[in-house]
Amino acid sequence: MNHIVSIGTSHHVAPIEFRERLAFSEEQLIESLQHFRESDQVQEAAILSTCNRVEVYAILNSVRTTEAAAKVLVEFLSRCHRIDMESLKKWTYLHHNVETIRHLFRVTSSLDSMVVGESQILGQVKDAYDTSRSAGSTGTILNRLFTKAFSVGKRIRSETTITTGAVSISYAAVELAKKIFNTLEGKTVAIIGAGEMSELTAKHLVANGVSNVIVANRTYERAVNVAQKFDGIPLAYDSDLNFLIDADIVISSTNAPDYLIKRQPLAKIMRKRKHRYMFLIDIAVPRDIEPDVSKLDQAFLYNIDDLEAVVASNLQDRQQEATRAEQIVSEETKRFYDQLQIFQVNPTIKALHQQFREIADTELQACFYKATLSDQQEEAIASMAQAIVKKLLHHPMRNLRCAVNDGDADHGQYVQALQELFALDVNDENPE
Amino acid sequence: MINFLFLVTLLIYLAAGIFQTLSLAIGNRSEASVIRPAIERLAFWCTIIGFAFLTVFIALWWLQQGHFPMTHWTDSTAFFAWAITLIYLVIVHLTHLRTLGSFVIPVAFIAILISYSFATHTAALPEPLQTYWLLAHTTLIFLAYAAFIAAFGFGLMYLISERKIRRKVDTLFDNLLPSLGISDELGYRCTILGVILLTMGVIVGSLWTQYIRDVPWRWLDAKVISTLVTWFIYVAQIGIRQFWGWHGRRAAYAAIIGFVAVLCTYVGVDLFLDSMHTYR
User: Fold this and answer.
1) Judging by beta carbons within 10 Å of its beta carbon (0-12, 13-18, 19+), is residue A281 exposed, middle or buried?
2) Cβ neighbours of B37 in A, within 8 Å
3) How does pLDDT run across B16-43, given as a tens digit for each residue?
4) What is the Cβ-side half-sphere exposure of residue B150, based on CA atoms within 13 angstroms?
5) Phi, psi (rounded to 5 degrees) for B40
6) What is the DSSP letter of B268?
7) In whole angstroms, what is the distance from residue B268 CA to residue B47 CA?
8) Each residue's pLDDT tens digit, B81-103
9) Which residues of A touch B176 (CB under 8 A)?
10) What is the pLDDT of residues A11-61, one digit of tens each?
């Protein structure tokens, strides 16, 4: 019987020092897949290697026990990366059959990711699967498993909202801007001061369509440095704030001890810019922008706490949604496993039927050859033979199917017993 | 038969109104992420089917009366609902913003409800009014009203989103309402459309009175004065926006004031004042 096993490590169980030792380089990956393809023990294999996780999925059918199946993979990793068994046991997890399926479904749905709902993992798993498939190391079962995993991942993304809502400050700012302006195309962002966070936010805004960047700094050279990164316009900071007339989005992060942007001067500027919307993001502590600014009609002010609150609430939403996603995963896991069981039992059933029918046919031919019978007699005997075959197979087949449908763990032994007792030659690679 | 058809129309509009409101009320709260799109679709299709039924009803009513039905509240309010739905469907076709329906379809439903409650009344249309002038005049005016109601809907949408953004509430990122800029811009365009239609309607009406019917022009007609006040409110709004850049929240409030003026002109004048436009 087939064992679906996976071994792996992720940010949940192992520190970066271990994960990087286990990571596969491109060469190693191809080599290992090659190795699996030629191996007698491993029928199918796929390797997923990203910066947060390294996982090997495999189908083994020459081993009898789960432990033996696990051992094959542990030994492989140990040999491939020259890691001692002790640390492997300590920092990795092993999954078997249903648990492997559930795990892969959770991974592709990003439920196992560091940030639940992140969008990269689905693509990463797809790439990993494509590499493994083109290396020829996957087969019927893994092909089915991964295809299903992608559809589960998509289902969860469309039926739950785990991927929506910004979970970083800079993305929260972009989403807010999209809620205010009808389009970000042609808008201008002004960065006052400098800092990683404001540059990152500006970068995301530019990626979302904002076309002009103004950088104002007390030191002109610094302004030039930052402006270069965005193809923007550097300015020496001037307290009359006239450069804000053209700014639709203002990101302020200076070390100034007092408010730089106050309500009264800004009101004048708003009038000069014909009251077009202005979105002000104050990520400085102490704050750069007077809170009263938000009382101006078309000015929207968010400070660092506001943005963090948005992020926190989005994270909480995702967490809630994750519970619903887990239910979908459980449901899909069970359905897939059941289908897989039936799929795996089918070849045996087919082979048994075929064997019985062949024996009956041979004997019928022999019988017809020996005796001279009328057409009518031949027909009667032939149908009797068919009926005997059918009745002999009826109970074993029914019981086998029942065992599969009930999720009886022993059906694997039934299948094996059938194959051995009747000397069946079951071809696992039967086409869909 | 025709009454039954009208009842069915009323019920479909009721369903449309309920589903439209529901789809907005649910928002995109997580538990509802599967059913909300379904409700939204349902609401939209109810609106389309309701509109088709209403069109058939008005056509049959027209045939039965033998002239353009515009004599009684029954006719008038049914036509009002028809105009609102038509403008809504055109806007959805152009912008895909179905959410607007949550604000305007309930208004259309109330109009039909009023119409239905008068449904048995009919009145003869005086001979001199049975012309295409009446058709053109009323159609233009009602389409203008409908455009103003759409502007009102966008105004409400603007105020709701603005409130969410200002108060920094966590349902901030639901994607049902368009951005402030879009609500504002579309509300403005609806206002312009309404003003153009209203102007044309008034011109048609006055030419008709002046040259065709040869009736003395009554400046003191309550409906005329009220309409001019409404017209002025909207024109002033456009002018102030152009010259002083008033938009956003102030424009949204102006759209609401305009809506009240439209209601006063349409309903109030008839109920409380005498006018040559009164429905019987």
Assistant:
1) buried
2) none
3) 889 888 888 776 665 566 677 888 888 8
4) 32
5) -65, -45
6) I
7) 28
8) 999 999 999 999 998 888 888 88
9) none
10) 999 898 889 888 998 888 999 999 888 888 888 999 999 888 999 999 987
Is a pLDDT exceeding 90 seen at residue A6? yes
3-state SS class at A96: strand
DSSP state of A289: B
Q: How far apart are alpha carbons A205 and A3 in whole angstroms?
A: 49
C-alpha dist (Å) from residue B51 to A385, A392, B98, B152: 69, 66, 15, 21
Active site residue A51: yes
pLDDT tens-digit readout, A314-370: 888 888 888 989 999 999 999 998 888 888 788 888 888 899 999 999 999 999 888
Interval A181-220: pLDDT, tens:
988 999 999 999 888 888 888 888 999 999 999 999 888 8
Task: Give which of B91, B105, B48 is closest to B183, Cα–Cα.
Answer: B91
Of B28, B33, B173, the CB nearest to A175: B173
CA distance A98 to A103: 9
CA B118 – CA A301 distance, rounded (Å)? 52
d(CA A353, CA A127): 40
Q: In this complex, is the C-beta atom of A161 within 8 Å of any C-beta atom belonging to chain B?
A: yes
**Chain-chain contact of A181 with B180 (C-beta, under 8 angstroms):** yes
**Per the CB < 8 Å rule, is B179 touching A179?**
yes
Whether residue A164 lies within 8 A of chain B, CB to CB, comes out as yes
Of A181, A310, A321, Cβ closest to residue B172: A310
Three-state DSSP state, A282 = strand
Say if strands A42-49 and A53-60 run parallel, antiparallel, or are unpaired. antiparallel
Q: Which residues contact B19 (CB under 8 A, 6 or more apart)?
A: B39, B40, B42, B43, B46
Place of tokens 């994607």: B175
